[in-house]
From TrEMBL:
Residues 17-174 form the Terpene synthase N-terminal domain. One of its GO terms (biological process) is terpenoid biosynthetic process. Its cofactor is Mg(2+). This is (3S,6E)-nerolidol synthase 1-like. Pfam families: Terpene_synth (PF01397), Terpene_synth_C (PF03936). GO terms for molecular function: lyase activity; metal ion binding. Residues 231-468 form the Terpene synthase metal-binding domain.
Length: 533
């Protein structure tokens, strides 16, 4: 991590940099003008909004995008081609509009068959990539979107030989299949998507490149703050076998909160995320059941226990200080103190860790559903997202508190997604020793699957259903949760596969690819990826 300190330049803004900021403001105005002047119900207008979204620039144009989509809502008709229908459906649903999938895709998917007409290969291919992208927004039980996913994937893969004759089409198909827009954090693929933005659209390209540089600089400063905080805690000195990955942990915050204005919030959020990993390792690698019971009781009392070993006391102090810091921030910024609720969330997390720890140490075989229910809490996701909910200024009412703790709600569905995808692997993914449960193992011991392959298939079906539930809650404009919080939860879900897809060397190739793409400074990118060494 020392290499991180050598990559910063704290010099004040030069005249050239000040001029660059003024040019940036002018380009923002030019793009706003483009959005408002383009025919509002046209395919061109949809494509412009989609490009802005994919480049991670939509926070600049919230009002203009809402204006465009208001016009697009009533523009759909039966004469639309597959590309226009698919793109309009996806953008409208992503922005909370109540649209019915059958109205958009019924004319293309009839009697279990795909009806495409006699369009050109390029036109058909673009339409099917758009349909494939749209199929990921299933909010539960929408059979036509499941059919759209199957047919689009089959057609695109079956016709690759023809598609590969056109380099641009081939890149578009590969990008759409690998990085469906709804399930990828926009900022992590924005630079890669720039290849599809016409050179003629120099204003949008230049604006995106400025944003990339600004965001990179911002994240560098955030990471420095996180590293300094982590070193100051001293936990890595006491827990030699524990994960020591504050840079990786901050990537979660970078993904969840994309708006550049939320820099302080990202740094704050990384702290409880880091502590979840630490506590997880303490339960898996270090404590006895007696010590872990005292540890859990101390957190629930919000007090120090003299009987605990030194490293547990250090961890307790870190939990207390971080929670008090976040509570003070919320009180200072928004006028209420959430300390009681955050203490309760920490208590629930510790209880779940303790239950899991007892099961694994005693070798108990519990029902898979019981393990999963507890594992959702022990993932730490509900606790972290509760911190985020408050950091973003959302008031804690009886209704929102109920929703934050709802086993079928948005935050717990994100946690379920993480737990299921995590359990498809094992502790070996990060070359750890220690105790680690697995839904698949308990599922097989229950006799519900004849083979590991059958169990994995069942888990993947559960993953698909969980995504549908995340979409149902995350895309609902009638949700009492703010649009910003719902978007953050969706980003957390989008990040899960990136964080839990390991290669044979126990590394995260997709995460490595995204970070090397995001950070133009190779020295910094190398330092950022050093946790994998």
């Amino acid at each position: 991590m020392e290499a991180i300190y050598q990559t910063f330049d704290f010099s004040p803004l030069t005249t050239e940099e000040t001029s660059s900021l003024l040019k940036h403001a002018a380009k923002l105005d030019q793009v706003r003008e483009m959005l408002m002047k383009t025919e509002q119900d046209s395919l061109q207008s949809l494509e412009l909004v989609d490009t802005i979204q994919r480049l991670g620039l939509c926070h600049h144009f919230k009002d203009e995008i809402e204006y465009v989509l208001h016009h697009q809502y009533s523009a759909h008709n039966s004469n639309d081609g597959l590309l226009e229908a698919s793109l309009r459906f996806r953008l409208l649903r992503q922005h909370g509009c109540q649209v019915i999938a059958d109205d958009f895709f019924g004319q293309f998917l009839r009697s279990g068959e795909l009806k495409l007409g006699d369009g050109l290969v390029g036109e058909t291919t673009r339409g099917l990539v758009a349909m494939h992208e749209a199929s990921h927004l299933n909010t539960g039980g929408e059979e036509i979107l499941r059919e759209a996913a199957v047919f689009s994937s089959l057609w695109l893969n079956a016709n690759k030989a023809t598609i590969c004759l056109d380099d641009e089409l081939e890149r578009m198909v590969n990008f759409g299949l690998s990085f469906p827009q709804h399930k990828i954090v926009a900022g992590f693929t924005a630079k890669s998507y720039l290849q599809f933005v016409s050179d003629d659209n120099h204003v949008l390209r230049e604006l995106a490149e400025f944003e990339f540089a600004y965001t990179e600089s911002l994240h560098k400063h955030e990471i420095l703050q996180v590293v300094e905080w982590w070193k100051r805690l001293g936990l890595s000195d006491e827990l030699k076998s524990s994960r020591n990955q504050p840079l990786k942990w901050h990537v979660w915050s970078m993904a969840i909160l994309r708006n550049p204005r939320l820099s302080e919030h990202r740094v704050m959020l990384t702290k409880p995320i880091s502590l979840v990993y630490v506590v997880d390792d303490i339960f898996d690698l270090y404590g006895t059941i007696h010590e872990l019971t005292l540890f859990t009781q101390a957190v629930k009392r919000w007090d120090v226990c003299d009987e605990l070993p030194s490293y547990m006391k250090t961890c307790l102090n870190a939990i207390y200080e971080t929670t008090n810091e976040i509570s003070s921030f919320v009180y200072r910024e928004h006028g209420w103190n959430p300390i009681h609720f955050l203490k309760t969330e920490w208590g629930s997390l510790m209880d779940a860790f303790l239950v899991e720890g007892k099961w694994l140490r005693k070798g108990e075989v519990v029902k898979a559903e019981e393990y999963l229910k507890n594992g959702v809490i022990s993932s730490g996701v509900p606790m972290v997202l509760s911190h985020l909910f408050l950091l973003m200024g959302n008031p804690l009412s009886h209704q929102t508190q109920t929703l934050l703790t709802d086993p079928n709600g948005l935050t717990h569905s994100v946690a379920k997604l993480l737990r299921l995808l995590d359990d498809l692997g094992s502790a070996k993914d990060e070359e750890q020793i220690g105790l680690d449960g697995s839904y698949i193992e308990f599922y097989m011991k229950e006799g519900k699957a004849k083979s590991r392959e059958e169990a994995r298939e069942e888990v993947m079906n559960m993953v698909s259903e969980t995504w549908e539930n995340i979409n149902k809650h995350g895309l609902s404009s009638t949700s009492p949760f703010s649009a910003g919080f719902r978007r953050a939860c969706l980003n957390a879900a989008r990040m899960v596969p990136t964080m839990y897809t390991y290669d044979e060397d126990h590394r995260l190739p997709l995460l490595k690819h995204h970070l090397q793409t995001m950070f133009a400074d190779p020295a910094f990118a190398k330092a950022l990826l050093s946790w994998q060494s």
